[in-house]
């Protein structure tokens, strides 16, 4: 330890500003972020602008057309068979048009639900209740009614019309 140095010398550390990216590029990044946010907001408004009422109206019209066609194709030998088929068609319409799970419920489950068919007007709900009660009485009666199957189909068609035009706007 003679007191000789081997060339190690303490130097000042590098300036931290040298590690920061060029400060002249931040306006460009600010514009990029602004444009991306603007595009996101425009997409959000376009999706929101598409009216769910118009979309649901188109779905209801398509379901109505399918139901009318299905009611016209019913070929039933007796009233019970006509009531079963008409009930299935009307419940299928409600499952598509109103998003109601009526298709997969028994008549009793359908009647016991308090929030059944909330998208319909009160008159349409009462007509649906009466119509489905009538169809259930024809389907589940111990004796086959002497009515004509065409009368059940006609009543079901009227009920379908009431349901289709009974949506609250």
Describe, in plain words, how this protein is organized in 3D.
This protein has 169 residues and is mostly helical. Helices cover 63% and strands 0% of the residues. It contains six helices and no strands. Helix 2 runs antiparallel to helix 6, helix 3 (79-97) packs parallel to helix 6 (149-165) and helix 5 packs antiparallel against helix 6 (149-165). The termini are far apart.
The main pleated sheet reads as: none
Q: Please bin the fraction of helical residues.
A: 55-70%
Low-confidence stretches: none
Query: On the 0-100 scale, what is the average pLDDT?
Result: 84
Shape: rod-shaped
- The topology string of helices and strands comes to HHHHHH
- Give me the Rg, rounded: 35 Å
Beta percentage is under 5%
How many helices in DSSP terms? 6
Provide the fold topology.
Elements: H1 26-49, H2 52-72, H3 79-97, H4 107-112, H5 122-140, H6 149-165
């Amino acid at each position: 330890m003679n007191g000789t140095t081997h060339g190690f010398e303490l130097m000042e550390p590098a300036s931290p500003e040298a590690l920061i990216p060029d400060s002249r590029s931040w306006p460009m990044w600010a514009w990029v972020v602004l444009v991306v946010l603007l595009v996101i907001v425009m997409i959000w408004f376009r999706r929101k602008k598409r009216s769910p009422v118009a979309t649901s109206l188109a779905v209801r019209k398509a379901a109505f057309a399918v139901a009318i066609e299905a009611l016209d194709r019913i070929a039933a030998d007796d009233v019970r068979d006509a009531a079963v088929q008409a009930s299935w068609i009307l419940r299928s319409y409600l499952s598509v048009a109103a998003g109601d799970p009526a298709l997969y419920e028994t008549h009793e489950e359908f009647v016991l639900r308090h929030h059944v068919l909330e998208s319909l007007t009160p008159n349409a709900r009462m007509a649906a209740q009466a119509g489905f009660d009538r169809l259930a009485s024809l389907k589940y009666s111990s004796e086959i009614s002497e009515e004509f199957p065409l009368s059940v189909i006609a009543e079901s068609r009227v009920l379908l019309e009431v349901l289709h035009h009974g949506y609250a706007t």
